[in-house]
Amino acid sequence: ELAALLEAVLMKAGLSEDHARAVGRVMVEGERDDCRSHGIYRLPWVIKSLAVGKVSPDAVPLLHENETVIVRADAGKGYSCLALEMALPVMERKARQFGLAALVINNCFHFSALWPEVEAFARRGLAAIAMNPSYISVAPAGGSKPLLGTNPFAFAWPRPGAHPYVFDFATSVVARGEIELHRLDEKPIPLGWAVDDHGKPTTDPGEALRGAMLTFGGHKGSAISTMVEILSGAMIGDLMSHEATAYDNGAGAVPLHGELLLVMSPELFSAEPLENRHSRAEDLFARITDQGARLPSERRFAAREESLKNGIPLLTAKLAELRELAGQG
Amino acid sequence: ELAALLEAVLMKAGLSEDHARAVGRVMVEGERDDCRSHGIYRLPWVIKSLAVGKVSPDAVPLLHENETVIVRADAGKGYSCLALEMALPVMERKARQFGLAALVINNCFHFSALWPEVEAFARRGLAAIAMNPSYISVAPAGGSKPLLGTNPFAFAWPRPGAHPYVFDFATSVVARGEIELHRLDEKPIPLGWAVDDHGKPTTDPGEALRGAMLTFGGHKGSAISTMVEILSGAMIGDLMSHEATAYDNGAGAVPLHGELLLVMSPELFSAEPLENRHSRAEDLFARITDQGARLPSERRFAAREESLKNGIPLLTAKLAELRELAGQG
Q: In degrees, to the nearest 5, what angle opens at C-alpha A67 toward C-alphas A62 and A71?
């Protein structure tokens, strides 16, 4: 029901039916998993980006496939979600044939989390790594000015009969959305998340948003974030975070850049029977949880089970607002 | 001269000429770059592992190549260095043909850093990611018992006319070798590096080595470390850190496990001319250093320049010791 409503809202905002369905779906997945910062919280931004004329509302993604294991999808300045959906079956075929394949999405507006994407591959029995630049908001280790994006890095491993092992995190200490939520809630942020625009540590979310966030894990997180800029920016011939920021030029739209996914077919990485290797991976996960540690995404999967059983909790006011946006008010 | 001396020492210890040359070379590279913890500091351990009969001193690595982009090298329980050397030209060919290829090294004893390996690909104009498990010494985030290895993760990007962009770090807060050096120097370690065997934070390097180290960046580093166990352990049909530790069974030898390298040919990832993409990567590096931040490996490359100009500084006593070990005393 929420998916249909979001699709209606997005079509009303100008998106083609295919795009509206693909974009609506990832927002529903966010709400279903209680990932507020990647759910319908993003809707006003997605609509605004259409309104300012940045995003192509009906671009048809073009897939380029050749004899290499690199599949390129030109999103034609549309949202990324549809390009990924269209590339999924091609990537599955490539990965199963060659063991390993790369998906390059170019020229896309990107607002979504990466876990729905790597999870989609894991549900097909494939392992996947995904990364992309964003807007500048993070200083490199030892620096004081925003240059890197929050640059997410995600991974999924298929687990037979269980939710996949999935992580998806910003290479900043936290996602920029977390700081935005603190600002909306008028709550201070912990020290160590960010510096103000003079390079001084701050607990004020507004100052942090005007200054620079810090990378997780000091110079190591900074190195990974730089790798994300290089591989999913310069290498794939698409915009790095500082270039995406310059392209937006203050319009406040969703960022235009590319994305890189590496997809592996575990079957072909060893002559040992795949089920043995899965059993050994399961044994590792058991050893992690047996000592009281949690697997990443556990909270998200628990929220999903709850949503699938009892529906997605949504404020009545929010629902009414969506119905009005869809012209059903 | 040091390379020849190390080769003589290693052959005296029982290694075949090919293995002695390959192992000696990575130790010289460590000394040249002032990476003490991966230089001849490792020599006694490498010799001991031969003495206890764990390592095959003359295994000939077997390369398996097929129509996929996965190249498997069975090191036959020899040291990993020779297998990697032999696989380099095959991997270069695969990557240039398909854009992306994976090298799986199985069944190898592994003591070396990963930066010499990813750098070797970058010197050929290729980008590379490398990872491997090790021995258990790190607790997963939220846990208190060693289960993960220090699990290094490395990356190199080729820079025309300059040293490559390279990082290579342990997914623990520090490398285990750093804690060992603190113990040798009888210096306390900073709080936050490790817990003792009751799960309590400690500054005593000895207690830390008996307890568990912590991952860098909390749950994010822990997630990456677990990915390293899965991809370069279970997925490639080789030992994860806890299995490598069980295999050693207290013998104190170098760990037996596998390694995974992903090698990319940037040329094929975009239709945009490669030199443009390199220029934009260079522009990013300039923006990093212009704000006073450093690129990873800068210290190491500075030491290298110094060594190539003035030779590798080595204590006379150390040199005499090596000559004695080589039977030239």
A: 35
